[in-house]
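note to self — DONT lose this again. spent like an hour looking for the file last time. sequence + predicted structure for the chain T wanted, 152 res
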Amino acid sequence: MFGRKRTAPEQPQYPQPPGKLATFHGFSGSPDKRVLDTGLYEFFTDQNVLIHIHDSQCSAITFEPDRARLEMTFIFDDPRYTPKGLVPEARINLLFDQVVILRWDGDSAAPEPEVPGGPVRDLFFEQPHFFRIDLPSTALEFTAQRVELVVT
C-alpha cells in the first residue's frame, strides 16, 4: 500500500540442513553469558569460568559415526593461559550429539575416526546448529543438536 519494499528474510551465512536450535549443557545459563550470546570461541562454564578456547590446544577430535557423536578435547598446556577457576592442565571436552558432517578438510580425503589437534584458530557457532573448527591440520564444519561441556 505505501510502496514499502519487501526484503527476503536473512539467510544463514552457511548452508544448514533443517533442524531446531542446538541445546547447550554444562555452559552458563546467565543472561549475556550463554553460548547463544557469546559463541564458542570464548564462553562461560556453568560455574561462570570464562574459557578462551583459542588459548588452548585441541588435543583430539574423535568422530563416532554410528552414534552421530563428535568429541573435541582441549588442554591448557601453558599455566599462564589456564583460566582462573580451573585446575592446571584442565581438559575441556565438548561432546556434540546428533552430528551431521558437512565438510571435513584436512590431511585425508575422508573424515577419520580421530584427528590430531593443534592450536585453535577458530571455534565458531551460528544459530540454529552450525559449528566450525579451524586447526592448522584440519577444518571441520558440521551441525549438531546437542552440545555438552565437561571440564576435568
